[in-house]
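Re: that chain you flagged

S.,

Sorry for the slow reply, it's been a week of failed gels. I finally had a moment to sit down with the sequence you sent. For the record, here it is as I used it:
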Amino acid sequence: MSLTRPQTLRTLLSAGNELIFQLTTDGGARDDLGSFGWEIAIEREIIWTCKGPTFGQLPGSFRAESYGLLSAALFLDVYFSYYDTPSPDPQPIIKCYIDSMSLIDRVLRNLNRTYVNPSRCLASDYDLESGILFIITNLPIAISFFHVKSHQDDAVPVEALPWIVQMNVHADQLATDYLDNHAKPSSIVPFIPASGARLNINGITINRRFPQQLRLAASGPNICTHLMTRNNWTEPTFRSINWTVPSKALLTLERSTQIFIIKFAHDHLPTRRHMYRIKQAETDKCPACHHIVESAWHIFSCPRRSIWREKLLKTLHDTLSHNRTQPDLTLILLQGIRGALSNPTFQMSAANREPQFVSLVNAQNKIGWQHILKGRFSNRWLQIQQLHIRTDPDIDPTTQSSERWLKQVLNHIWTSLWDVWIIRNADLHGRDNAEQEQKRKEKLRPHVIALYATVDSLLACDKPIFDTPIRDRLKAPSREIATWIRLVTPTVKRALADAKSYLLRTNHRIEPFMTIARPDPLTRDEQVNELRPVSRLD
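Prediction finished late last night. Pasting the structure tokens below so you have them in one place:
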């Protein structure tokens, strides 16, 4: 922290002058690092500046910005307490300029809240939010918030910018300097008393997604064991997979696509094979080729999907080129996906490759190339791409990262998989209204035939249920047929039970009319007597 004159504020306040302070804060984050910077000035005179670290795993820019505001507010609070500054009259004003509109909205929304909402404690970065609100509401001076656009010095010299924008540039420079030269990763976050609690799991402070993190901590070991057993992975192989980026990439998709990818990754897609096994489908054959059992992998490798596969590889090549992918990574990834689509157990040869690509191919071979489509990339992909970003002079490392690269790749792959699932559903359910109606009738037809097959087992009083010929019934619209099946099925079940009960009451068993058989076999003498002729009586 830089204090030009520590008692400047006390002196100015004691003079009874009307003061307006300008406060600008900024923050930045990169991977596990974060930092902030702030500056306070009166008119065009800078009084205090500060820069410092952001605590927490993968802090992100919002948390870094929040730490900047918390630090500035805490400094003012401690200053007034340390110097025992009396309540000034007239009361000074602090105009706080922040380039994060989301932070401003969140602070103002909670400052103006008229009721206590217990669920707020589950919000991401609640510890910083509670600390900021507690300090601001107890400060003896009022703070008003304004938004300032960031990075305006990219196109205009700093000296030519308005003073408030220059202050924002200064705060950004402070944060960047700390991030580049002093920032260190931190797993434990210092406790903020206003938050009331802090959640630590395995030595790591949790500051977002609390319910999910608790569920993951409780069920995570069992899930890991299940995945290793199901996929025949060793623990080192499991640890070599990057699990962080796929979870972030999943959030970039629409909700329906997210559900599909999660089901696909865990082999829970409602394929024909699965639906047939649980007796919810008449056949397990693929609705496109009609002769191969439809598994999850067959959806993508079906002979009828060749156009889609070629399109996937071509558009993926374009995406990789657009995101400045290391050339060898592009070739390996395209070869691996092509091989996995043709053979789920595909293994790539590591011969005649540079050492770093040998380790990459071997690592992915252990994981399985088919898992690429499920988002299970070896960490070696990110390491090689990050090295390429740092060494290629044409790539700006401040805007590109290996994590961003993998997110873009996964977004493209998963969007393409969702597209082929839509095509598959069209093959199964029909593309236009007429075809969809025909498909629905084909599914309902076995149910109608099964119901009509029970007519001979019903009592005469119940047979009028089937007065309409089956041919006419099947000509009705599918919605009408489905409604008839839903209404008639319980009636037919009851009618069959009544017919069985009536049969048992009105039909006598035949056993009473039969001679009772001798319980024990005849002895030899009795057999002889049975065979001896009887004398005639004259």
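What I noticed first: The chain has a mean pLDDT of 88.

Talk soon,
D.
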